[in-house]
Amino acid sequence: MPTPIVSFAPSCEIDLDKDGKRHGYLRIQFSSHRSAYGWLPVPIMTIKNGDGPTALLVGANHGDEYEGISVISELYQKLDPSDLTGRIMFLPCANAPAVYAGRRTSPVDYTGEANLNRLFPGEQYGTPTEMIAWFITNELVPKSDAVFDLHSAGSSIDHWPSSKIRLMGDDPEKDGIQMDFLQLFGAPLGIVGDRVHKRTLSGETSPKGILYLSTELGGGGKIRPWIRDFAYAGMLRCLRRLGTLRESFEVPPVEREVRLMAMQQDENYIFAPADGMFEPRVNLGDDVEDGQFAGYVRSLKEPWNEPVELHFRRGGVVFCKRHPALCDIGDTLFFTLSDYQGA
Prior knowledge:
By secondary structure, the protein is α+β, with helices and mostly antiparallel strands. It has helices at about 65-80, 95-100, 130-140, 170-185, 225-240; strands at about 10, 20-30, 40-50, 55-60, 85-90, 145-150, 155-160, 160-165, 190-195, 210-215, 260, 270, 275-280, 285-290, 295-300, 310, 315-320, 325, 330-335.
């Protein structure tokens, strides 16, 4: 008889298709110096009650983005199968090795800088991060009617809170649902885009007709209570709109008017023109004008020199600001968003 081939592909401890509430791990096979025949644990949970829409909730696509972990974990803890007409799959720590290390990127891959959201669709027998991407792409996304990818800015960046959709263009009904998600999520800014980036999770969803909402829930490697709380309530409202939560499930009302913004372009960015100390002179959420003074980069090795002035090329809302003061040439210092003008 032929010799059987043994698979070292990622595996899941729980049955994602069975009714009820269950939790366990994705097992990412990883033969390392400290554990020759070991595997890496990626937490996964599911709640299912009969037929209905399936939602996939992803947190910590980058390992130092903590708000999504908090929101997704509590949703699993608080919801019961009787609250649903469908299924929710929970992946709170998608890039688990990076989460455990407190880093944006995973330290266990060959480079030590494996960015999960630049490795989709992944590899079934690749590095640990490639295997996680493969499992999400091939085992979770195809089961999903909607994917909610809860990002924040991580340790090096801070964001004014937002949610974001990518319009499909050829399906007005689905685009209408996604526009509803922006309003129901309730972030101060709702970004309307018309493009996706290759090798990202959005690139594996929107082109396939799967509803997709991503977020930027602050940043700086910390959790702000007001952001975390509206994100939790916003997820409940979106899940009910999808039809995964029962219509009778009571959800909090939206607290604010959502300002619709267009996805950023190259002219929205300010990159560090020199190494040194970044000194911002505007705040996140400020409205600024074209050419407005934004701050300085001061030289630390030649502090007798005048600092380099920074100016916004394109005005709008200050959406992104570098968090650490130290910067190198090429670091993103700011970017702005302009108001959405419609299709």
